[in-house]
Design brief:
There is one protein chain. Helices cover 42% and strands 15% of the residues. With 495 residues, it is of the alpha/beta class. The chain has five domains: 43 residues, Arc Repressor Mutant, subunit A (Orthogonal Bundle), CATH 1.10.10; 53 residues, no CATH class; 171 residues, 2-Layer Sandwich (Nucleotidyltransferase, domain 5); 62 residues, no CATH class; 83 residues, no CATH class. The strands form five sheets. It has a five-stranded mixed β-sheet. Helix 1 runs antiparallel to helix 2 and helix 15 packs across helix 16.
Length: 495
């Protein structure tokens, strides 16, 4: 079959002065066919639409009575042709074949185009320089990144200037207020300027539900952050992700670019989170920000200056240390050094850490709890009291937190076999030894003893971890008699 492209090629070659044979060869047709198509309409214009069927309609008798009424009732176009086909197969056993599903899909497509309900139209928008920056979080756990071999579930905070496409990316453990403020301020201060409007969805970290109307409104804390930078908030309707299409499309491009870079790298393991974040930002700078540099230069005159300083990207909690040597921060329980018992402390909750301050001095910094974890107990904070009251270990509410690793848990189980009821006492002493010397050294010693299936106790482990230091003899040197030296000097003078 001769195509329009072949005929155009033929006629171009003839106009250049080529013979019919040469033009036909260039167009990929025989000379006889070429003579037929030297002039006149193109092949596509000579075809007539086929109005007859080449085979019997397999859906004759069910299309009008069974399919069309259901398509007409499906005003939202959610009913799939495959679902209809499977239903017809159940209603009329043996009548339809699997290969006919594509025919039904085409019939459904054409019916909806001719008789179906109207569909939602999207309106392409013109970006205004300096007006808008869009932000959102996206789950990046699917990239398969690991930190020192351990799975690293995480989110990416992403900010995009709608006009220039300049992009800022940061890691986030979860979609919290602190992570949102840290990401927003990181973008603004890296850019060195601010747009007029922040576009986002109804993030739970920035909005709260209105009980009467059922809508959502900015929280006072996040409104204060926006006021600090003179930013206005623009939010999309719930369930309408396309209304924030700038950043939604950026999510796809960002994760695709990072995935490809990881494939070229050969593995997805990193030494720490900072190294991985630097890797992601290098990819974004190369793939997104360098190509956007010219448009960003055009946009900069329309951006606004930043205030003199950022706002704190942490939430402050004031708490009295309870008699269990614990505090409550953000609805979760953390242990603190027992010397703070009864004192009022200030806890600062950052995106990934929690700082404990007493009278302005940082007393402890610990990882922030993530996911469903409700408490974090550091055995070092309470072991001093527990070693004096080892009987409390058996029914301690947070006992499982007192096993720093699987090796310690296995050591406790082994002590239960060999020491019976004294296992608690022996294990608590081992914990105290780990707290006062080196947890890693104690763990290594326990691992070796467990692997060799040797019975052990606190005294044996202590002998390995802190062996007896040889006593150095004390040498007493008498004070010299200076009178003899004086006599020598005086006798020498008389000479």
């Amino acid at each position: 079959m001769v195509t329009d492209a072949q005929v155009r090629r033929l006629r171009e070659k003839r106009m250049d002065g080529n013979t019919v044979g040469a033009a036909a060869a260039a167009a990929g047709m025989c000379e006889r066919t070429a003579r037929h198509w030297q002039e006149g309409a193109l092949p596509s214009a000579t075809k007539t639409a086929r109005t007859w069927r080449t085979r019997d309609d397999p859906f004759d008798g069910v299309w009008t009575t069974e399919v069309v009424p259901r398509l007409a009732a499906d005003t939202e176009r959610r009913l799939q042709a495959l679902t209809l086909f499977e239903w017809l197969c159940r209603q009329y056993p043996g009548r339809f074949e699997r290969g006919q599903v594509r025919t039904l899909q085409r019939r459904v497509r054409d019916w909806r185009a001719q008789h179906g309900s109207d569909v939602e139209v999207y309106f392409e928008q013109t970006a205004v320089p300096g007006r808008e920056g869009a932000l959102d979080f996206t789950d990046a756990s699917g990239l398969g990144v690991t930190i020192q071999g351990e799975p690293f579930p995480h989110l990416l905070f992403e900010w995009v200037l709608s006009f220039s496409g300049w992009t800022y990316v940061a890691l986030a453990a979860s979609e919290t207020f602190e992570a949102l403020v840290a990401g927003l301020q990181g973008a603004l201060w890296t850019l060195g300027a601010a747009p007029a409007v922040i576009r986002s969805d109804n993030l739970s970290a920035a909005t709260h539900e209105l009980k009467r109307s059922g809508g959502r409104q900015l929280t006072e804390r996040f409104r204060g952050v926006l006021d600090h930078y003179g930013l206005r908030s623009s939010r999309i309707q719930p369930g309408k992700a396309h209304e924030n299409g700038v950043v939604e499309q950026a999510h796809f491009r960002t994760k695709s670019a990072v995935e490809q870079a990881l494939l070229l790298r050969g593995h997805a393991d990193f030494v720490d989170e900072a190294t991985y974040e630097g890797f992601v930002r290098e990819v974004i700078d190369r793939k997104r920000n360098r190509p956007a540099a010219a448009r960003l230069a055009d946009e900069r005159p329309y951006l606004r200056a930043l205030p003199s300083a950022p706002v704190p990207n942490y939430t402050t909690f004031t708490s009295v240390v309870r008699r269990w040597s614990t505090i409550r921060v953000g609805g979760r329980t953390y242990s603190v050094p027992s010397r703070l018992l009864g004192h009022t402390i200030e806890a600062r909750q950052y995106p990934t850490t929690v700082e404990v301050l007493y009278r302005g001095h940082v007393m402890e910094t610990m990882p922030r709890l993530r996911g469903e974890a409700e408490h974090r107990i550091d055995y070092r904070h309470i072991i001093g009291s527990l070693v004096r009251k080892p009987g409390a270990f058996a029914r301690y509410r947070y006992r499982e937190e007192l096993f720093p690793s699987l090796t310690f848990r296995q050591a406790y189980d082994a002590l239960g076999v060999t020491h019976g009821e004294r296992a608690d006492v022996e294990y608590v002493r081992l914990l105290h030894l780990a707290a006062t010397t080196s947890e890693r050294h104690v763990e290594t010693t326990l691992r070796a003893l467990l692997d060799d299936r040797q019975p052990f106790d606190y005294a044996g482990v202590q002998a390995v971890v802190t062996p007896t230091i040889p006593r150095v003899p004390v040498i007493h040197i008498p004070t010299p008699d200076l009178a003899q030296y004086d006599a020598l000097l005086m006798g020498g003078g008389r000479c």
